[in-house]
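ZP: hey, is the S-adenosyl-L-homocysteine complex queued? I don't see it on the tracker
AM: it wasn't, my bad. submitting now with these inputs:
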Amino acid sequence: MTDLYRLLPEEMEQLVMDMGYPRYRADQILLPLYYKFPKDISEIKQLPKMMREELIAAGYTIGSAKEIHRVVSDDGDTTKLLLKLTNDNSVETVLMQYDPSKIGGHPRSTICVSTQIGCAMGCVFCATGQMGFEANLKAEHIVSQVIHFAEILQQRGEHVTNLVFMGMGEPLANYDEMIRAVKILTHDRGFGLGQRHITISTIGIKSGIEKLAEENLQIGLAISLHAPNNELRKKLVPTASPNSVEDIIESGRNYFKRTGRRVTFEYALMAGINDSPKIALELADLLKGNGSHVNLIPINPTAGDFSRPTEDSIRKFEQILSNAGVNCTIRIEKGTEISAACGQLRTDLIG
Ligand code: SAH
Ligand code: SF4
């Protein structure tokens, strides 16, 4: 079985031509796929009935990810979906909406997609990391997460504006499927989202960052640093050894050189662990003059023993970075009460 959401527009053309149909039939599949969100090939009425039947008989399908549960936060700004995949795995995906009166500018509807079920990196503060690795998602499963929300938003006269790869899993550890999904989602005959509206977040895998830099894409990169030195970082990210802090900074710099896109460093702040003024100074020294941006994320509660620093220490940490000329923001977190915030995703409903 092959899900039609797996195919790049060029591959869709090849498929219809191999079936003996004219090239334009590909657009009669692609347009409904990305604008009408059919649940089944039989719903693509633009195609002749015979062609639909031939596609089905040849093993093509739609809908390898079905919604089985939906939770909405009290303010209605955050929605979390649990999707069931054909292989019986399930995966979580989150929509975050930002009120334009609070952020300035246009309304934003950002989807946070997952790339794996669980994660092998084992970060001690992350619920997904504590689940361990279960499986890689296929490109069609990643694309489907966006499609589900695109449909929900369309019903309200809204649309997807941004996409962040910050759900479950390490995107660069599932590189081929992740990049296929990015290409489909940004293709002008696919979902058509602007490359600049996508951010990939990685724990910092040097080889993956280098590969991504060579793709000639305008997507944003966020690197989860969490510590300014290798000793502390290894305690928080037990699998960090092959990629030192220095390596990661270097690959971030190369990414910027190659793509012109500035890299963001994410830093989950944990009370008594990585939030002292001394560590802030060390981080400032490491990053200053680099043009990079730091996103401070006061840790979200998970099953682990970590807690958020006080408001006061968060501000102090920020001040030290800003005083050193390091551009820095404190991230507005959404969805904590429905366990939809960073690092809280795991598939609780399984079983
Ligand atoms: N694996 C990738 C992307 C998914 S995690 C990565 O690590 O970057 C997305 C972001 O959530 C990362 O910056 C991660 O460090 C952060 N995160 C994980 N657990 C968290 C928690 N409990 N509280 C706040 N942020 C967390
Ligand atoms: Fe994996 Fe990212 Fe969680 Fe670390 S923070 S365990 S890399 S998902």
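AM: back. The longest helix spans residues 139-155.
ZP: great, adding it to the tracker
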